[in-house]
Amino acid sequence: MKYYDARETRDPAAREQELLARLPAQIAHAKARAPAFAALLQDVDPAAITTREALASLPVIRKSELLERQKLARPFGGFAATGWGPGCARVFASPGPIYEPEGARKDYWRLARAFHAAGFRAGDLVHNTFSYHFTPAGSMMETAAQALGCTVFPAGVGQTEQQLAAMLDLRPDAYAGTPSFLRILLDKAAEAGLRLDSLKKAFVSGEAFPPSQRQALAAAGIQAYQAYATADIGLIAFETPALEGMVLDEDVLLEIVRPGTGDPVAPGEVGEVVVTSFNPDYPLIRFGTGDLSAVLPGVSPCGRTNTRIRGWLGRADQTTKVRGMFVHPGQVAAVLKRHPELGRGRLVVDNPDHNDRMTLHCEVVSPPAGLAEALAGSIRELTKLRGEVSFCAPGSLANDGKVIDDIRRYE
């Protein structure tokens, strides 16, 4: 079957009408079951929100606000319509921390559609190298693959030698994980005179996937596709064999707004991705992802008729994604507060040899012994990622308010 279902090729006008018709009930549900939305939308009549113009009159809920509200009302800041029990199978923590529920429904994150477009089919063995603890990435991939009838090897992160041994023994058909880690596995195998020739397809996410990475994997006989998904929303858009932008998921309503506002931009203009979810457990209305993108004109050559976006074009704020994990300016500030001998600090993110690296540059008069190691420990504890430390003289960092500086380059 070429398409996941018939919804992918329906008339665009019919799709738009169906999504807008679902809005009033979802907004009413959010007001009735999620206390935060009951307060935010107390003066809103759900029955009146039947157009994009009406939707644009509602406030945008940005990730930074979600983080602050969760600090006041654990675990979900009043935005979830579910609690502990049979309806909530798992709860995850992303850096911040931001907590996200996972409902008990099949393919909760709706990623099976993207996996299908990437060529995953029933009977495939999928080697899943996304994390299975704290963050939802491992579960997102596993539940999608299982919804298609695949079997999953829950590899998780790290342990390169053991992962390689398992792949040589089990001969998986497909890989799920970051593209950089797949390259590491392929290089390790080549160094040992071995071949991972059972791998024919890959679903990659969590970091940039430049053309050079795609071409290198294709040269190894692996067709790789990526998707745009978040722990809050699930699937937003996905690549297809056409490789011309990303096609929106059938169960999200997307807007592109001017960063820092809720105002939709002109078609084709770059702006912040704002998504309304129809998830009954976590009914996020006008959720600002903080990511930049733009709508592409026309229909995908693959035959799917939904709107396409250009993919990830950067961040609308300083929050950035490193090795599949979001890092927030507040986390950098928390690291600096732990060490009062420091002045200003700036987290610089680069990617030598296509591997993400974080370096915390700190102003200090004279660093005492052990400070670098203590800082590295604080970075790991607060961001769940490894980071390096570099000391500099007081006043040497630019006084421009920048806390996170992403200088990664992709060839």
Describe this structure in words.
The chain has 411 residues and is an alpha/beta fold. It folds into 2 domains: 7-315, 3-Layer(aba) Sandwich (Rossmann fold); 320-406, 2-Layer Sandwich (GMP Synthetase, Chain A, domain 3), CATH 3.30.300.30. It is 28% helix and 24% strand. The protein has 11 helices and 21 strands. It has helices spanning 12-33, 35-40, 52-55, 63-72, 112-117, 137-147, 160-170, 179-191, 211-219, 329-337, 371-383; strands at residues 61-62, 88-94, 98-103, 125-128, 151-154, 174-177, 201-204, 223-230, 234-238, 246-248, 252-257, 271-277, 287-293, 295-296, 308-309, 320-322, 325-327, 345-350, 357-363, 388-392, 404-406. It has a 9-stranded mixed sheet, with helices on both faces. A 4-stranded mixed sheet has the order 1-13-12-11. A 4-stranded mixed sheet has the order 20-19-18-21, with helices on one face. The model has no long low-confidence stretch (mean pLDDT 93). It holds the Pfam family AMP-binding. Keywords: Ligase.
Number of helices: 11
Helix content: 25-40%
Task: Compute the number of strand runs.
Answer: 21
Strand proportion: 15-25%
What average pLDDT do the residues reach?
93
* CATH topology heading of the largest domain: Rossmann fold
User: Which homologous superfamily in CATH is the superfamily of the largest domain?
Assistant: ANL, N-terminal domain
Gap from first CA to last CA: 35 Å
Count of spatially separate domains: 2
Strand numbers in spatial order across the main sheet: 5-4-6-7-8-9-10-15-14
| Biggest β-sheet description | 9 strands, mixed
Tell me the CATH architecture of the largest domain.
3-Layer(aba) Sandwich
The Cα radius of gyration reads 22 Å
